[in-house]
Every structure is written in structure tokens, then in C-alpha cells.
Design brief:
Blueprint (H helix, E strand, L loop, with lengths): L2 H17 L2 H4 L5 H5 L5 E6 L12 E2 L5 E4 L6 E3 L15 E5 L13 H4 L9 E6 L4 E10 L9 E7 L1
């Protein structure tokens, strides 16, 4: 390598370094995430026996995620793409973690069922990721009707990040 080539390479690297600012080094937030507007805090309740196919019994968070629960109990599910809850993957289009969005670097996301059992869900701080929307929401369940014949009621409060 000639001295002139080394000198030119050094100048180019120096110019590149000088041209970069701190703002350019930070990852940019996708526009889709910036445009989403939601209420800061939302309380949602689906009463025991309420028809899960009706809009008032679905928490319609975005066009991609409508959370509800069937009257035979089971798991909550995403009414946009599911007709009932499955123990494994439901609610589809979401991932969950124990904790709050303040702990994001330390959270491990999985299905709701892998994260917590329904019998233990009331009072726990959870984060729900809306996968297709790129949104993370703090969720705290305040009520969960146990059993498969008691109407599938549940309630939670959610806060958008």
C-alpha cells in the first residue's frame, strides 16, 4: 500500500467520522410507530357470559389486535384472527413478558401461556407486544373468572408506551 493511498484513506475516514453526529448514530423509530395514537390509560372488562363477538366485548387496541375471551373460559384471544383461545399461541399477534416497559432491556417475551398461567395473572405486571404494530403496552389484569363454565369474564388496565 502506498503512502498516498494510506493518506487518502485516513482523510476519508476522518471526514466520515466528522460528518457523523450523535443523532445519526441513534436508530430511527419507524414512522408507523410514531403515528399510532392511543389513550394513555384504558380499562377494559368483558363480563361473564358477554358475547365475545360483539365489539363492546373486545378491546380493540389496533386494527390488528382485538382482545377478548370466550364464554367457556380458556385463554384470551385476538378476535381479528382467532375465533377462540388456544392454550399455546393465543392471543396470536402478541407476545408477553412479566414486568413493565420500564424494564424493557431485561424482559423476555413469549406467548401469554408461556409467560404466566391464568390462575396467577391477576395483579401481575405484564407487557404485551403487538407484534405487527411494533407497540409495547403495560397490562395489569384486575379480574379473571376461573373455570370453563363460569362465563369467561376478565378485566385489565392497559397503558401504552
Amino acid at each position: 500500500m502506498t503512502n498516498q493511498f494510506k493518506f487518502t484513506l485516513l482523510i476519508l475516514l476522518a471526514l466520515l467520522f466528522v460528518q457523523c453526529s450523535d443523532d445519526e448514530l441513534e436508530p430511527e423509530m419507524p414512522e408507523e410507530m410514531e403515528e399510532v395514537e392511543m389513550e394513555a390509560t384504558v380499562s377494559f372488562t368483558k363480563a361473564n357470559g358477554a358475547d365475545p363477538t360483539l365489539p363492546q366485548n373486545q378491546d380493540r387496541i389496533t386494527d390488528n389486535v382485538w382482545i377478548t375471551r370466550g364464554n367457556s373460559g380458556m385463554q384470551i384471544y385476538n378476535a381479528v384472527i382467532e375465533t377462540n383461545g388456544e392454550e399455546g399461541p393465543s392471543p396470536r399477534g402478541t407476545r408477553w413478558a412479566l414486568g413493565t416497559t420500564a424494564d424493557m432491556p431485561n424482559l423476555t417475551f413469549a406467548t401469554l401461556r408461556e409467560t404466566i398461567r391464568p390462575q396467577q395473572i391477576v395483579g401481575e405486571n405484564l407487557v404485551m407486544e403487538l407484534v405487527d404494530d411494533g407497540i409495547f403496552i403495560n397490562v395489569r389484569f384486575t379480574q379473571w373468572t376461573q373455570g370453563r363454565t363460569n362465563g369467561g369474564g376478565f378485566a385489565y388496565t392497559r397503558t401504552e408506551l
